[in-house]
Amino acid sequence: MNMRDNANVTSLSPSMDSPLQLIRDLLPFSQPHADSKATADFRTQLLTTSGLSPLELVRKLGSAVLPSISRQADPQLRFSQLEEMRQEAERALPSLEQEIGQAVLPLPRAATSAAINADNLLKGMAQAYAGIAHDILEHHHGAGLNQLLHRAIQRALALLSRRQLLAYRAYTAPSAASWQMLHALYRMACDPLAKPLNGETAPIEHEYLGALLFAYLEPAKLPRPQLDLIHACTWQLAAYAVVAEASPEILNSRRAESCFLVCPDTGCPGQPLSRLSSDLPESGCLIIDCTQVLAALDRNLARQPGKAVQPDLEISPLLLHSLRVAVGGRNARRFSRSKFKPRADLVGGLDEVIAFLDGNAFSRRALDADCRHDGKTFKTSEWSLIDESPDGFLIRFVNGEKCRIGAGAVVALQPRESSRIHVCLVRRVSASNTRLELGLQLLSPQVSIVELPSEKAASLRAIFLHSLPAYGRFSGLIAPPGRLVARQRVTFNTAGRTLHRQIGKCIEANEGLEFVALDPLPD
Question: H-helix or E-strand containing 449?
Fold first, then answer.
């Protein structure tokens, strides 16, 4: 649930409680009979939502209550009814959002239905609030509605941002139309007719920059369970981003690695200046300067224990570093990919990958049939290898067991007609109604399953990575989270040898695994 959606509804003007204002509220701008009929219809429809399940409630609000509000001609009454409906929607949306965020991928039918209906409601409410703003600007209802104009734009932006977060929960990309509407609403707030007063546009700018900044963090590369936490951090960081009209002077004065160019008509959040050609479009474009956002992330990365920093971001240093890389515009692919489309088997999750590697791996060749284990504790799914580079793969789901694979998960990939298994980390997830794709980082050319002494159990099974070409000249270890201690010495056997190592720096950690470097010790 977004923090901005929990805000109490404040009065529309400082004089709302005055006797004159109370009289004005009783005299709507439009035809009394038409508005009273629309209001009665709204009340009737709202009463029918009592006792409905979250999915039924969302459907009812979108199909019956929202249309009754749209028939209300007076913008103030329409806004008031939308606010009442929005509060009613909060009884259903959080549970549906949680269901979508925890569902397996590709989404099963029930989760898909929840996603479609929640998306439709958020879209409809955003359009309704935007319609109020358009109505005020086009018909010039008077300066008394200026605050209502800004409130309506802010609500529409918040709902669009929430709609985009809903898409990210299922690793799908927000629609181009949602980005175009987001940019158009921000432009509307900047229109001279909007007459910004005393920072009225500040909350609007914050909503706008928050949505853009979260997109710049590349949610497709972030773990699903941490999306809400990261989204909350984005809300804090948005205050440090700066938006300005694109011009030759602005473009020449900004650092390319921390700035993004937004072209509103393209239907996207913008692109890093560092990835664009020197011949940049300027007319109607915006520059989003994230220099101070990087500085805020750096303060959190460099903070000393017990020291306060602003903003105080309550996420791990590893995740902070990932966000800094994304905002810095440096998440570029190191190698070009070669395209080919063979099939492969995939197993996801640390325990399943260990079981798969530990004597249960098989290929599809007939001569290997006798070696397969009937009692295996893992389930495979079939994927198409779309393309490959020296450090990873892009794969597409074909069929098999659905699973909760997200960014940061460990998987084992075995191409058909091959006995070789690749252990990878999921770096990017892209989902749509028709396909699910994973971007995988290959970790090591050679892996083994090892057993480590453990105080909590007889032994701890982990994946030993003999070398880590992408990280340096050392080996690594993937184990369950919270089981390894920094500088701890470990001894294990592999390939007929006894190895002595020391736990080094933590490379990655999440709710499913801990990935550490191993420092060498004399064997």
Answer: strand 447-452
Residue type, 168: Y
Write the CB contacts of 220 (distance below 8 Å, at least 6 apart in sequence): 168, 171, 173, 407, 428, 429, 430
Q: What is the pLDDT of residues 349-367, one digit of tens each?
A: 999 999 999 865 444 443 4
Q: Is the peptide bond before 106 cis (omega within 30 degrees of 0)?
A: yes
Phi, then psi, of 297 in degrees rounded to 5: -65, -40
359 within 8 A of 448, measured Cβ to Cβ: no
CA angle 224, 229, 235 (to 5 degrees): 125
Report CA-CA distances (Å) from 1 to 4, 123, 163, 206, 231: 9, 16, 11, 17, 10
Q: 450 — phi, psi (to 5°)? A: -125, 160
3-state percent breakdown (helix, strand, coil) of the chain, nearest 5: 45, 20, 35
Taking only the tens place, the pLDDT of each residue in 20-29 is 444 344 444 4
Contact 120, 154 (CB under 8 A): no
Mean pLDDT across 304-329: 88
Distance of alpha carbon 336 from alpha carbon 208, whole angstroms = 34
Q: What is the pLDDT of residue 196?
A: 62
Q: Which residues have C-beta within 8 Å of that of residue 7, sequence separation ≥ 6?
A: none
Alpha helices (H) along 302-382: 317-327, 350-355
pLDDT one-digit tens code per residue, 409-436:
999 999 887 778 999 999 999 988 778 9
pLDDT tens readout for residues 50-78 = 899 999 999 999 999 999 998 888 999 99
Query: At 318, is the pLDDT very low, low, confident or very high (cuts 50, 70, 90)?
Result: confident
CA 101 to CA 103: how far, in whole Å? 6
pLDDT at 141: 58
pLDDT in tens, 332-346: 444 444 455 688 999
Q: With CA atoms as reference, report the closest residue to 237 among 168, 320, 126.
A: 320
DSSP 3-state assignment of 456?
coil
Decide: helix, strand or coil at residue 243: strand
501 neighbors 490 (Cβ within 8 angstroms): yes
Band (496; pLDDT cuts 50, 70, 90): confident
Q: How far apart are CA 359 and CA 375, in angstroms?
A: 12
Residues 360-393 as b/e (b if ≥16 CB within 10 A, e otherwise) read: bbbbeeeeeeeeeeeebebebbebbbbebeebbb
**Radius of gyration for the chain, computed over Cα atoms and rounded to the nearest angstrom:** 27
**CB of 523 closer than 8 Å to CB of 498:** yes
